[in-house]
Amino acid sequence: MSVEAPGRTGRVVEIARDVRDAIAQVVGDRGAFSDRTAHHELRGRLLALVLITFILDALAAILMIWLGNHSFRRSAVWSTSLLVTGGAALDTGGQRHYRLALALELWAVTAVGAIAGSFGAFFHRLYLERDRSTASAKNG
User: Fold this and answer.
1) Where along the chain do its domains lie?
2) Residue 116 half-sphere exposure toward CB, CA atoms < 13 A
3) 36, 37, 79, 138: which has the fewest Cβ within 10 Å?
4) pTM of the entire structure?
């Protein structure tokens, strides 16, 4: 028997919709957030970025197991430390590991840029929303 707080399911559906819209916007649908606020857009973009990073982290750990003789724990520590800090906590050696490390470092740099861009877009859209509401209050 599960007990849920009132409105909890609606909130989860709303967050999932924001993530879906963020991914649709990345693919090219520029009208994905047209009916939502700046806060919904920022939350969707950040959650999509976190979700993609977690998936890449898991895939990199699995690739490390496949490429070399490493345990899952060692592979997960290596890939996570590479994504979080930009440098690996463990030395793996080898050209194939180097290529995977380079790909993860490129993703980490891209993710930081995407976070900065998301906050820039958030503040710009917030400004536009407040400017519209101020203009409509003056004209109204």
Assistant:
1) 8-139
2) 6
3) 138
4) 0.72
